[in-house]
Design brief:
The complex is a heterodimer of chains A (477) and B (165). Chain A has one domain. Helices cover 76% and strands 2% of the residues of chain A. Chain A has 19 helices and 4 strands. Chain A has a two-stranded antiparallel sheet. In chain A, strands 3-4 form a two-stranded antiparallel ribbon. Chain B has a domain of 80 residues: Four Helix Bundle (Hemerythrin (Met), subunit A). Helix content of chain B is 79%, strand content 0%. Chain B contains 6 helices and no strands. In chain B, helix 2 runs antiparallel to helix 3. Classes of the chains: A mainly alpha (477), B mainly alpha (165). At the A-B interface, helix 1, helix 4 and helix 5 of A face helix 6 of B.
């Protein structure tokens, strides 16, 4: 249905971001916390409109913008992500000396980029959305300006991000040249009809996948991830590890699912490319994580490894399990980062493994929730992480991808080692020095609780969410 | 006349690009690049696309070059680092050059055959572009405004003066 309602969620977010920029100029320094509350209010309003649009299939701008159930579901997940990230940032930015106004407005601009990307089927629009997301991300990474590492993160992210965008644009241009369209549906149609120019289109699609490979951090294109994750302000790292990754998979799902399903002859090459990337990602990501001692770097490599499992879901063409995995992943990863952020005080963050010795008994809440998130990332029942991996692997077995599944299971066995090592440090090591932290941080504890709830709810009673996801992915068929 | 202009522009364009690569002085490099862009603008004019020609000159030869020159002025590179020569990069560059050359020949073949088949359609008039921007491409066009504000805010945030500490 062609309706202006399709545009409203995006408008609200952009408006919120501009509002915060203006308000920042007028608010006193002590009152800057209001900016966070205002952005949360806007997020809630936007969420309300998203929920109302469910099953309505609004579209606008000649179908350039549409809100089918899949984009609604993803948009809603991104809203939750941003909501959680804002909550964990509130104390952090005053403790670490980051300025608030532009922080929240850039975060909301990044969110608007993600909303643009998931609610369009046109590659041109998707590219522009990606640029909105990336450009806001580059500056978010460099916001901790007292710290050299933060600037390093920003410049690294910027350079490699530009590189990735170049691949992406070249890919889109080649696809356009081969199929005379930037619309995903007609590109797939063109592939199906099997007219000539197959090679050009195939190279285009390959470049497209590579461009997004940088964004979702899969292995040959992952070099930037650990440095950027380490240098960026920690709440922003939490955002990077879920936001751009989830949106990248959402777009890949839209492009690759119909492609792998409908195009038989030429899709072999892309299928093989994805298989290789997936195996490399799982193996390399998990192996390098074993040697890390910085918590942010461990979580960075773990997020790389998770991209590998997610690719298996794409290869198995099981959309529901991919979306479910992403949903769980958001809760457990933001939860884990929230626990890392909890261990900090003014101008100081505790990020080394050594710092975590004895934390489990000294701060039982942080220790316990962090352990649950780590177990979920490793894939232990009864957490959501277990079910997510279980669905993905069983879907892959049904599609006769047994070798991939074996590698995946072995890789997650390796990952158990470094996740458990953190828990061992928290509960079984004697602290050699005092770690004192600022625990007056209600927003952060709310996030820990919400993520704990999310991980357990999705692990024990996933029924309701699965029904929603099943409804959402029918949009792809 | 058109042929004469085409070859004149082509020779000047290639010469200025070569000059840009060979010259060691950054300011000259930038100026050679301006010349090359201006020649490109001339090509568009020859192809009956006056609007694109003007835009090419204003944006590339004007705005982007100013940026380049500012950067050169601010960074103040005296002496470029001596180029590192590695064997494999040379072979790699050679390989890519061969691929590009083959591509060029292939496109030239098809370009000449299409030239024979008929005249060129007049494209890229301001009316056409305006109409497309505000009908078919309205949504992407509006998104660019978000993109620009994100870039502006980001750039200002990263380079503004720090608060007194």
């Amino acid at each position: 249905m062609n309706s202006f309602s399709a545009l409203i969620p995006l408008l609200i977010i952009v408006f919120a971001s501009l509002c915060i920029m203006i308000l920042e100029a007028f608010l006193k320094k002590e009152n800057k916390d209001y900016l966070a509350y205002i952005s949360i209010i806007f997020l809630v309003v936007c969420g309300f409109f998203l929920v109302r649009a469910w099953n309505k299939d609004f579209s606008y701008f000649n179908g350039n913008l549409f809100l089918d159930n899949l984009s609604l579901f993803f948009s809603f997940i991104f809203l939750i992500t941003t909501f959680l990230v804002i909550l964990i940032s509130m104390k952090y930015i005053s403790l670490q000396g980051v300025n608030c106004g532009e922080y929240y407005s850039l975060l909301l601009l990044a969110l608007s980029g993600m909303l643009i990307m998931v609610s369009s089927g046109d590659l041109l629009v998707i590219f522009l959305g990606l640029e909105v997301l990336s450009i806001s991300s580059y500056s978010l990474a460099g916001l901790r300006r007292k710290d050299e590492k933060s600037s390093e993160a920003a410049i690294k992210y910027f350079l490699l991000g530009c590189f990735a965008s170049a691949f992406l644009v070249y890919g889109i241009a080649l696809l356009y040249g081969a199929t005379y369209s930037t619309d995903i549906a007609s590109i797939i149609n063109h592939f199906q009809s099997g007219e000539s120019l197959g090679l050009m289109a195939l190279i285009g699609l390959g470049m497209f996948v590579i461009g997004f490979g940088f964004k979702i951090a899969v292995v040959p294109f992952h070099m930037w991830t650990p440095d950027v994750y380490e240098g960026a302000p920690t709440p922003i790292t939490a955002f990077f590890s879920v936001g751009p990754k989830a949106v990248g998979f959402a777009v890949l799902l839209r492009v690759l699912y119909p492609y792998l399903k409908n195009v038989q002859d030429s899709s072999k090459a892309i299928f093989l490319l994805l298989c290789i990337i997936s195996v490399l990602t799982m193996v390399v990501g998990n192996l390098i994580a074993l040697r890390q001692t910085n918590l942010k770097r461990i979580l960075a490599y773990s997020s790389i490894a998770h991209a590998g499992y997610l690719l298996i879901a794409i290869l198995a063409q099981d959309n529901a399990s991919l979306v479910f995995y992403l949903t769980v992943y958001i809760f457990m990863n933001i939860g884990a980062f929230a626990a890392v952020i909890a261990l900090g005080k003014k101008d100081k963050e505790y990020l080394e493994l050594e710092d975590y010795a004895g934390i489990g008994f000294k701060y039982p809440w942080i220790g316990a929730t962090f352990s649950v998130f780590l177990l979920s990332l490793a894939g232990f029942p009864p957490t959501g992480g277990f079910l997510a991996k279980f669905y993905v692997f069983s879907a892959a077995v049904r599609q006769d991808l047994v070798p991939l599944v074996i590698i995946g299971v072995l890789a997650s066995l390796i990952s158990v080692f470094y996740y458990l090592r953190i828990i061992v440090y928290m509960y079984m090591k004697e602290p050699s020095y005092e770690v004192d932290i600022n625990i007056d941080n209600p927003g952060l504890f709310l996030v820990l609780f919400l993520c704990l709830y999310g991980v357990l709810q999705l692990g024990i009673f996933p029924g309701n969410v699965l029904i929603l996801i099943k409804q959402a992915v029918t949009a792809l068929l | 006349m058109a042929h004469f202009l085409f070859f004149l522009l082509a020779i000047v364009c290639i010469a200025s690009v070569l000059g840009m690569i060979i010259s060691k002085n950054q300011a000259y490099n930038a100026l050679f690049l301006v010349l090359a862009f201006a020649c490109m603008g001339g090509f568009f004019a020859l192809l009956d696309a006056p609007f694109i020609a003007v835009v090419q000159i204003i944006i590339y030869a004007g705005a982007i070059m100013i940026l380049f020159i500012f950067v050169i002025m601010m960074i103040n590179l005296r002496e470029g680092l001596p180029p590192e020569r590695k064997k494999w990069t040379l072979y790699f560059a050679l390989g890519i050059a061969v691929v590009l050359f083959v591509e060029l020949i292939l496109t030239m073949k098809s370009a000449f055959s299409s030239l024979k088949s008929g005249g060129i359609e007049k494209i890229g008039s301001p009316t056409d572009i305006g109409r497309l921007l505000f009908t078919e491409y309205l949504y992407p066009f509006e998104i660019t405004s978000i993109l620009i504000i994100a870039a502006l805010v980001g750039a200002i945030v990263l380079v503004k003066k720090r608060d007194k500490e």
